[in-house]
Amino acid sequence: MRAIVVVALLNALVVAFGINAESVTQLTKEEFSALRSEVLNTRATSPDRAISRVEEILVQYKDALNTRQTLRLTYAKALFQIGTDQFEDAYATLTQCKKLADELNEPYLTHYYYSYMGSNFGGLEMYELSLENYLKSYQLAVETKDESLISKSYNNIGHVLLKLYRLDEAKSYFEKFYLYGVDNNVQSYIAVGLNNLGDVAFEQGNTTLALQNFTESLAIREKENYVLNSSWSHHNLGKVHLQLENYKKANEHLNQAIDIREKYGSRIESLFSKIILAKVYLAQKNDQAAIPLLKSVIKAASDINNYSAYTQAYEVLNHYYKGKGDFVKAIDASEHFTASQLQLTERKANLGLSHYIAISDLALKEIDIIELKKKNEIISERADLARTKIILLLVSSAIIAFIVLFFFIKINNKNKQLKQTISMLNMTQKELIEADKMSAMTTLVSGMAHQLNTPLSVIITANSIMKDKVQQLEDKLINKNLGVHSFKAFIEDAKQTISLSENNSKKAADLVRRFKMISAELEGYKLTSFQLKQFMHKKLFLLAGQYQQRLSYDIEGYEVEIFNYPDVLFNVLEQLVKNTFDHQSEDMSEIKSIITIKSLDNRVEVIYVDNGPGIDEELRQKIFNPFFTTKGMQESLGLGLNVAYNSVLHLMQGKFSCEPSSAGAKFIINLPLKIDTDTG
Questions:
Q1: Under CATH, which number does the domain 528-672 receive?
Q2: Can you tell me the distance from the alpha carbon of 663 to that of 669, in angstroms, rounded to the nearest whole number?
Q3: For residues 215 and 256, is the Cβ–Cβ distance under 8 A?
Q4: What is the CATH number of domain 1-164?
Q5: What is the pLDDT of residues 307-330, one digit of tens each?
Q6: Over 73-127, what HEC string results?
Q7: In the chain, domain spans
Q8: What is the pTM of this model?
Q9: Residue 243: which of 215, 271, 203, 200 has the closest Cα?
Q10: Is pLDDT of 383 > 70?
Q11: CA-CA distance, 477 to 469, in Å (whole number)?
Q12: Beta 551-556 vs 591-600: how paired, if at all?
């Protein structure tokens, strides 16, 4: 799909940059068009050679190209790099594009920067950053009032939401894109829209609707001779027919997809079609065709550093060998799978870190510019004062009125400059806050990596030990000195090693599940009206039972009805009680919690106070940070209060704080009586 997107973006690039073109200084429009056509033709046969050719042109015609032409070629280079998985190089190239686009200062040019940056992050499966950039490109598309550009932004955003498995949101964006194609009778948009809606239906388990959409999309593409795009319809139909166990049709469609993609140089996309085809062969018990095909995919993916295809192929091999009972090969495939995942994670982390460093550097440069402006203003003011003194020495008392007027104007100008300076300082303050957010993100990534490192290391070590044990057993078997005792010892060691690997795999999976809780999501929670005080009584009674009646509680205040997420509120309440028990004093035989409910206009305040030792001021500043714990990382991840904070802030549209108290720990939850569903 990425190759098709790159081609589509290139076509859009050609059209978009042809609008409002500035006058060419040296290279004529026809000469530049000829160079661009040469680059596009080169890309069709060799994307790598196309990248080199663009670099040659930029050097050879440096003085003959105007800013707009340079930007067009640089954008093309970035797209070629994205299409060949050179994501780090593409990031650097797009940074150059941003500088050129800023010089031209036209919203639609900057729109392409964010659009291609979203494609770049999406190619490396960094979907959150991809979505962030696509949303910025959408905002700029809206500024241009170009409906075609806006609809393409819908399509881009929908693809990222599909990857994030936010299917209902993805469907909504795809439908907007599809309806634009229908309303304007753009057949290519209609075909792409049907294909995308088919993807959503397939993920939702509606294979009948998916089959219908993919079939209609293919019919349009074949009628309009969209040959390369039709490969995606064939690919998706192959997936559906595999799901329906119609292996003959699946085989036909997937082979057509592979033939088209290899003919048009879309080698990466052809690998994914081959992986699905291998699954079809395995479903037909045709191992002799499936295994060599998967190995050829692995070799090709390794040659071009495509971790996604490499990982998927080894995952299929791992399941195949497990099913055959060939655990040695299954472990080997699993090791390659794990190593590839680690390499991909490292690559994501490096690019993400580079991105945040670049943003921080930009903020620092802007601060330097502000300081330089201040120095220039001071120099200018000194010069003005010197001129004023000379004037005062030369003029007579007859022009005093003129001097008074002059100073009045001067002071007024300085007031305006002061207001501008204050405005710039406010902007700098916001940028520093964003820099702090980047620092927090780095801390979060570091904490996750630290937590996952131990179970993953144990798994890798266990797999390595098991491999050595199997090799030793094989050697003894070959040398015919394998005894019953040795075989029993091997079985015992294998059980222990596998158990160790399984336990740490579960631990790693559990860590990932708990990490996901850091980002509060609405899925699974239901908005409803409920009586707050009654709800508190019911849930605290259940929690008291969980802690074997060692929890007593009082609930003060009047009954209030609110419209919010009761399950989320229960999770927050449960975390507060757990926090109280985790930090109780050794001499405490009973935990007591006092909850006070206060009505505040159209909001409500829930105050939770326990009889524990309380929380020091220094700790209160950190307790909502992810991975902060006073018990050590081995006993606690330090995510509980962070998840509770995010839940109240982002899901329940409230405020959550920890206040000083002499009686114990004191938490305040401030909620709206009715949640705003338009933003919630």
A1: 3.30.565.10
A2: 18
A3: no
A4: 1.25.40.10
A5: 788 888 888 888 888 888 888 887
A6: HHHHHHHHHHHCCCHHHHHHHHHHHHHHHHHHCCHHHHHHHHHHHHHHHHHCCCH
A7: 1-164, 349-516, 528-672
A8: 0.50
A9: 203
A10: no
A11: 12
A12: parallel
